Every structure is written in structure tokens, then in C-alpha cells.
UniProtKB/TrEMBL annotation:
It is a peripheral membrane protein. Coiled coil: none annotated. This is ABC transporter ATP-binding protein. One of its GO terms (molecular function) is ATP hydrolysis activity. SMART domains: AAA. The keyword Zinc-finger does not apply. Residues 56-295 form the ABC transporter domain. One of its GO terms (biological process) is peptide transport. PROSITE patterns: ABC_TRANSPORTER_2. Its main location: membrane. Residues 1-51 are annotated as: Disordered.
Length: 355
């Protein structure tokens, strides 16, 4: 997603995911706890999510790109306060589109309908001014690749300080170094004077996390935040991200990381959620045929190469009358192609759970 913009982890529209609110407090009166190291429970989730007070509530979301393609088709999703909700699915299933829609950053010409409420504030149809004021305050963003997101000519401290300066504020004395130190960077005050090339990818991602959570947004969106990192670093950076975020929408291809770090997972296929549930349970015992295929596509030691799933997902321009997975599903029945399956117990399937 974002690249340089005046030295910031930046967004496609040139704005930054930072805004003016002092560290340690927010406008909803949350008392000023530091952003990192808060306790996190796994007990906040439910199958349907909370009725009110959700960190994120997406209802009947449709996103179409110019040319008529549907990248997201009738999607409902709730992220509860304190929850880490992961989105999984193969390339092109709509994960980044959903993330951009939540951030109010769909490209020009994209059409969005339905509802996206971030901390109760409607994003769909909101003015650019409202969206800019929400970024960093109500929703933070962690980019995929910190090396390309940081301007090589600026000091790392400049990037994190932009969380304030982008909104014409000055960081309180020591706030930037304190925040970065909380993300696990030793000697933060002196190291912040260095340029990005002097930091490792994992350290830069921690700086990006610091910028994203500087104002303690109720929701952080992270689109493949560890894909540019070594496997052993990915886990510890994700643990930092999770601890620093009040609620997290995590997009990842890495099912093992999701099973370890997410409370719930939503599996996307053809722009629709096909299965939602406890992350560890869904990935250990998938029920939707697509989730099962996704899980079995992960290579396992000593098991040889996994067989690729034949066929391909529907293109955005294709009409999908019934289940989007019907053309690749070994269990498909006539009805699957005709009508969209209802979601029961977190699974959208005409066959599984229907006898
Ligand atoms: N700007 C755009 N214009 C037209 N179509 C787009 C645009 N961006 C994405 N798409 C299409 O929308 C669909 C969903 O793309 P998206 O990037 O959201 O998927 P994804 O699951 O994030 O994939 P990946 O894991 O490869 O990033 C794809 O078919 C993609 O080609």
C-alpha cells in the first residue's frame, strides 16, 4: 500500500496515518495507558461479534473497481475491542481491497456500498476531511514493507514524529523515543537519529508500528506486515504489533502466524467470507471446502509437495450467482451454483453443516 510521502509511512492518497492526539489519552476518555504491553484477552470474541461498541463493523460491503469488477461481494464482519482478527485467502480474494476500504483509501473510481463503521464512525461516503481526521486517531495503518515505506533520506525519528507533525503538532518531549523504546528498540533516542538503511527490516517495522499506534487508535489495520521479514523475526514483530494495538485487523498469507497470533480468522474467497471462527480451531479443523484446500496447500515437513487446487477463483468481472467456490469444489451440488449459501456456525456453504 503506502510509500514515501514527505518521509512518512504514507498512503496511496498522499496522506499519513497519523493525527494529533497526545500519547496516553484519546477523545473517548480512555485513561492514558501506554500503547504497548497491555493485557489482551482471547475472551472478547463471539461468533457474531458484539452488537455495539465494535472496533470495526462491516455490513453488506460491496466494492467494485472501474470496469465493473466486484472485488468484495456482500461482506459482513465484526472486530471486537481487544480482538486480533485475521483475514486469510489466496491472492486476489479481496484482502487488500477490504483493508483500503476500511482506511477510506480505495483508488479513484472504485465504488463502495454498504457500511464500514470504525469505532462507530461511518467510513463509506465520508468526506476526505473526515477520513483524514480518522486516520491515526481512529484507525492506524502498518505497511507491508517498511523499507520501501520509509524515505531513505530522512532520519527514522522523523518518520515516527510525523504521527504528530502531519497534523501540525509537535510530539511531546521524549514521546517519540519512548514510543519506539516500547516497541523493543534499545537506545531508541540515539538510534532514531539514524537513517532507515542503518536499521534492520524488523526494527523499521517496529518504528512503523510505533507511528501507527502513537495516538492509540481503536483499530490498527496491518496488510501483510511481516511478509518482508525473516520467519523468526515475523513472530516477534507480530507479537509487538498485537500487544501495541487496541484491536487489530491483520491481513496475512501465513496461516501458522495467524493460528498463533489471531483470535479469530475470516477466510475470504472471491470477495466473500466463506468461514469465520476461532483462528486456531479453524486452521486446525477447517470446515468450508475452500478453507480445507487453503490449509492443505501449506507444505508440511515430510509430506511432499502439496497438490495445487485446480481451477481459479472468479475474476471480479464475473457474475457469481451462488457460491464463489462452486467451480473448484469437490462437494458442490446443483444448488451451490444457483444461490449464495447462507452462513451457519461461521461457515457459508450449502453442503457443510446442511447434511
Ligand atoms: N485498482 C484496481 N483496479 C481494478 N482491479 C483491482 C484493483 N485493485 C485490485 N483489483 C482486483 O480486485 C481483486 C482483489 O484484489 P486485492 O488486491 O484486494 O486482493 P488480495 O487478496 O489483497 O491479493 P494479494 O494477496 O495478491 O494482495 C483482484 O482481482 C484484483 O485484480
Amino acid at each position: 500500500m503506502g510509500r514515501h510521502a514527505g518521509g512518512l509511512p504514507a498512503l496511496p492518497d498522499g496522506s499519513v496515518l497519523a493525527a494529533a492526539r497526545p500519547v496516553g489519552g484519546d477523545r473517548r476518555g480512555d485513561p492514558g495507558r501506554g500503547p504497548a504491553g497491555r493485557g489482551r484477552g482471547r475472551g472478547v470474541r463471539s461468533e457474531e461479534g458484539p452488537v455495539s461498541g465494535a472496533a470495526l463493523r462491516v455490513s453488506e460491503l460491496e466494492v467494485r473497481y472501474p470496469g465493473g469488477g466486484h472485488a468484495v461481494r456482500g461482506l459482513d464482519l465484526v472486530v471486537a475491542p481487544g480482538e486480533t482478527f485475521a483475514l486469510a485467502g489466496e491472492s486476489g480474494c479481496g484482502k487488500t481491497t477490504l483493508a483500503r476500504a476500511v482506511l477510506g483509501l480505495l483508488p479513484p473510481g472504485a465504488r463502495c456500498s454498504g457500511s464500514i463503521r470504525v469505532g462507530g464512525v461511518e467510513v463509506v461516503g465520508a468526506s476526505r476531511r473526515t477520513l483524514r481526521s480518522m486516520r491515526g486517531i481512529d484507525v492506524g495503518y502498518v505497511p507491508q514493507d517498511p523499507v520501501t515505506a520509509f524515505d531513505p533520506l530522512r532520519r527514522v525519528g522523523h518518520h515516527v514524529a510525523q504521527a504528530w507533525r502531519a497534523h501540525r503538532r509537535t510530539p511531546p518531549p521524549g514521546a517519540v523515543a519512548g514510543l519506539v523504546a516500547e516497541m523493543g528498540i534499545p537506545e531508541a533516542a540515539s538510534r532514531l537519529r539514524e537513517r532507515p538503511h542503518q536499521w534492520s527490516g524488523g526494527m523499521l517495522q517496529r518504528a512503523a508500528i510505533a507511528a501507527a499506534v502513537a495516538h492509540r487508535p481503536g483499530l490498527v489495520v496491518a496488510d501483510e506486515p511481516t511478509s518482508a521479514l525473516d520467519a523468526d523475526l515475523a513472530g516477534s514483530v507480530l507479537a509487538t504489533l498485537r500487544a501495541a494495538s487496541r484491536s487489530l485487523l491483520l491481513i496475512s498469507h501465513d496461516l501458522a502466524l495467524i493460528a498463533e497470533h489471531a483470535d479469530r480468522v475470516g477466510v475470504l474467497y472471491g470477495g466473500r467470507l466463506v468461514e469465520v471462527g476461532d483462528a486456531a480451531e479453524v486452521l486446525a479443523a477447517p470446515r468450508h471446502p475452500y478453507t480445507a484446500a487453503l490449509v492443505s496447500s501449506v507444505p508440511k515437513p515430510g509430506a511432499g509437495l502439496p497438490k495445487p487446487l485446480p481451477g481459479r477463483p472468479p475474476a471480479p468481472a464475473e457474475a457469481v450467482a451462488g457460491c464463489a467456490f462452486v467451480t473448484r469444489c469437490a462437494l458442490a451440488k446443483e444448488r451451490c451454483a444457483a444461490e449464495p449459501p447462507p452462513t451457519r456456525d461461521g461457515v457459508a456453504c450449502w453442503v457443510v453443516g446442511h447434511g
